[in-house]
Amino acid sequence: MAKPASSPVIQLTDLKKRFGVGDAEHYALDGVDLTVQKGEFIAIMGPSGCGKTTLLNIIGMLDRATDGEYVLDGRNVEDLRGGKQARIRAEQIGFIFQSFNLIERLNVLENVALPLTYSGLHHMKRIQRASDVLKSFHLQEREYYMPWQLSGGQTQRVAIARALVNDPSIILADEPTGNLDSKSSHIIMEELSEIHKKGNTILMVTHNPNLTTYATRVITMLDGHIDTDTAHPTLPAASSEKRPLGKPKTKRKYTKRKGKK
Amino acid sequence: MLLLADHYRTARQSLDRSRLRAFLTMLGVAIGVASITAILALSGGVNKVIGKQVAELGSSIAVVRPSTGQPTLADLSNPSPSNAYSTSPFQERDIESIRNINDTEAVAALMTISGSVRTSFATPPRSTIVATSPEMQDIAGLNISEGQFIDSVTKQNTAVIGTQLSIDLFGTEQSIGQNFLIRGQPFTVIGVLERQNRPINYNNVDFDYAAIISFESGKLFNGGVAQIQQIDAKAKPGTDMSAYGSAIEKAMQKNHDDQKDVDVFTGQEIAKPTSALFKFVSIVMAVIASISLLVGGIGIMNIMLVGVSERTREIGLRKAVGASNATIVSQFLIESLIISFLGGLLGFLGGYFIAFVVSLLIPYDPTFSWMIVGWAFGLSLGVGVLFGLYPAIRAARKDPIESLRRYH
Q1: B204 — phi, psi (to 5°)?
Q2: Are A120 and B2 a contacting pair at CB < 8 A?
Q3: How confident is the model at residue B80 (pLDDT cuts 50, 70, 90)?
Q4: Which of A44, A247, B76, B308 is the most buried (most CB within 10 A)?
Q5: Looking at beta carbons, which residues of chain B come within 8 Å of A82?
Q6: What does the pLDDT look like over A213-238, one tens digit per residue?
Q7: Whether the predicted pLDDT of A118 surpasses 50
Q8: Which of A231, A255, A225, A244 is nearest to A2 (CA)?
Q9: Parallel, antiparallel, or unpaired: how do β-strands A41-45 and A201-205 relate?
Q10: Inter-chain CB proximity B327 and A87 less than 8 Å
Q11: How many CB atoms lie within 10 A of CB B97?
Q12: Nearest residue, CB atoms, B324 vs list A60, A82, A91
């Protein structure tokens, strides 16, 4: 299944992550081997506590592995210093979170432009880039909205735009639809699959088997290691097994549409 | 640097959001900086007044005073009154020794005598009795408005008085021939000085309130022994003052059994505050000012720590999208620097306001100098860095995973 021409974006070899010491010692990751090629859309499934999020955090360099090798774009990042890792995060990795994590006091445009701050682009250029990305998400008329003026689905689309603004080699999504209702979830997934079709590499952690239909490869994890790795998933067998999609959000109000600032 | 402008923008945004909080924190720094600015401006004012007098008199004056030594920390709790009342090291022959130095044009000893000045119907609330020699007129630049200055042929029990003392004693500036009492002894006014309006001067005597008597009369009040507080010497024009100063010093040491117990001041040095009390007061004020600055700094640290914990999630996100620890440190450091800088600015202006208000009550004006500007801003920025660093480092040390997990 690997495309022989290109080198893998991510190569993990015997990756281990230990939490606690002594009696409390516990391996969240216990020898993960994973190769991700450019252009793959991988869904990572598995029960709570199987190490999905830890894996994502390590790939995103928010965390360090205890043991093992991690090569990103041909560079072994495990022994890079913090500042260097931050630079790689700024330039090569885009994060999408379950809880969106927009900064409340920045408007949509500034939120999207945020990652570019750390790659040293000029302010005006950053705003320009962010505006372009928002346009491709058909959100340009929301540019000057504040995060609390958006619906959950819109908020997550803004967050996706933010993840894409620095043109990363890989997008890491940790349950991107976890806080959204089913309609918004599907909009978000369509959006992600659109991005994928444009040639982006996506790694997504999810609890929802339905969403794996969008992926090109499904990995299930169990107790800190990869349990199954399916290249072309079929639809989940029985609909009765489906977990219900997230409850509709009532907390965020979609009002205050009046005028841009 | 590009990032610096971004940090500035971010800091402005976050300060804008909690304006009252930022303003109150600034106020803390402002109070500290204001007191330091006021102290420096006013003490600079004193030096300037005396410095100007020295310059006016032509810098040919050398002043000899007993050594006071450096004020120590112990002086704060015990401002040793012994200094004020102790016997001065000067001997009467010191005057002659200085007179015998080749370059000396005039020399006058200053002997202030404690005691009351009064007539039978008036007791002025304020007066100084000064015993000195006729040369003082030339050295201190005292002009006579009426009558004459004391001279070598005037009788005992005659005095020259300052304008204000004349008014306080006799209700008029024309008081020649009038009699009054100094420590119970009758004295006759033989001259009245022109108004000086120099309450601050290097002789530490306000001549407007002074009764000047001859040196010999003064000795009589002290049981025939001279009690000299200060000797003023005037050099001939064109004398090298530092050489002259050391010549005096050498002569004094010879007279005083090789003890170095007096200091010789020439030129602008004379303007330096030498009174132990003055030093004591400035030390106390400086300590108070630095305490308020410290409190202001603690305020900054406090508010920055609150800000850091409020913005934990933002910090986590910023790290996730590529902020390094150093970037986070500088972001928060710039925020605290903005607070302390604006506080410093406010304090600087406020300090000058205080100084001008205070100067209405005291006889000299505050000065402006770039040194004061430097101190005010150096201190406020120093406080910003010192007290902003810890919160900033704390912000940078936050684990992004933990930070993002909070408040889900």
Answers
A1: 55, 30
A2: yes
A3: low
A4: A44
A5: 324-325
A6: 889 999 999 988 898 888 865 544 43
A7: yes
A8: A231
A9: parallel
A10: no
A11: 18
A12: A82
Give the other-Cβ count within 10 Å of A3's Cβ: 11
Enter the DSSP assignment of A245.
P
* Cα separations in angstroms, B339 against A244, B11, B269, B347: 51, 10, 39, 12
| A115 → closest Cβ in B3, B316, B321 | B321
- Nearest partner of A192 among A177, A210, A208, A207, judged by Cα: A177
**Confidence (pTM):** 0.71
For tokens 């991107």, name the residue: A176
List residues of chain A with CB under 8 Å from any CB of chain B.
57, 60, 62-63, 82-83, 85-87, 89-91, 95, 97-99, 101, 103, 105-106, 114-115, 117-123, 162, 166
- How many helices (H) and strands (E) are present in chain B, helices listed first? 14, 11
Q: What phi and psi values does residue B21 have, to the nearest 5 degrees?
A: -60, -45
Q: How many CB atoms lie within 10 A of CB B188?
A: 15
B216: which 2 tokens? Answer: 């010999």
List chain B residues with CB under 8 Å of A86.
319, 322-325, 327
Q: Report d(CA A20, CA A35) in Å as an integer.
A: 28
- Mutate which of A59, A92, A102, A118 to test chain B, going by most B C-beta atoms within 10 A? A118
| Location of structure tokens 């004398």 | B239
Contacts of A90 in chain B (CB under 8 A): 321-323
- How many pairs of residues across A and B have Cβ atoms under 8 Å apart? 74
A12 backbone dihedrals φ, ψ, rounded to 5°: -110, 130
Considering just the CA atoms, what is the radius of gyration of chain B in Å?
A: 30
Question: Which of B17, B321, B393 is the best residue to mutate to test the A interface, defined by the most A CB atoms within 10 Å of its own CB?
Answer: B321
DSSP class of A246? P
Do B343 and B381 meet the contact criterion of CB atoms below 8 Å apart?
no
Chain A residues within 8 A of B320 when measuring between CB atoms: 60, 62, 89, 95, 101
Please state the length of chain A.
Answer: 261
Closest listed residue to residue A89, CA positions, set A59, A123, A120 = A59
CA distances from A136 to A117, A131, A158, A180, B30 (A): 21, 9, 11, 21, 49
Query: How far does the CA of residue A146 sit from the closest CA of chain B (Å)?
Result: 14
> How far is CA B72 from each of CA A9, A144, B286, B292, rounded to the nearest angstrom?
70, 63, 14, 22
More confident residue, B239 or B391: B391
- How many of the other CB atoms lie within 10 Å of CB of A40? 23
- How many percent of chain B have pLDDT more than 90? 25
Closest Cβ opposite residue A87 in set B314, B319, B322: B322
Does the distance separating the beta carbons of B6 and A123 come in below 8 Å?
Answer: yes
ipTM for this model: 0.83
Q: By percentage, how much of chain A surpasses pLDDT 70?
A: 86
CB A164 within 8 A of CB A125: no
- Do A62 and B321 lie within an 8 Å CB cutoff? no
Q: Is the pLDDT of residue B76 over 80?
A: no
Query: Closest Cα of chain A to B398: distance in Å?
Result: 11
Per residue in A146-179, pLDDT (tens digit) is 999 999 889 999 999 999 898 888 999 998 988 8
Round to whole Å and give the CA distance between B167 and B158.
18
**Nearest by CB to B321, which of A114, A120, A123?**
A114
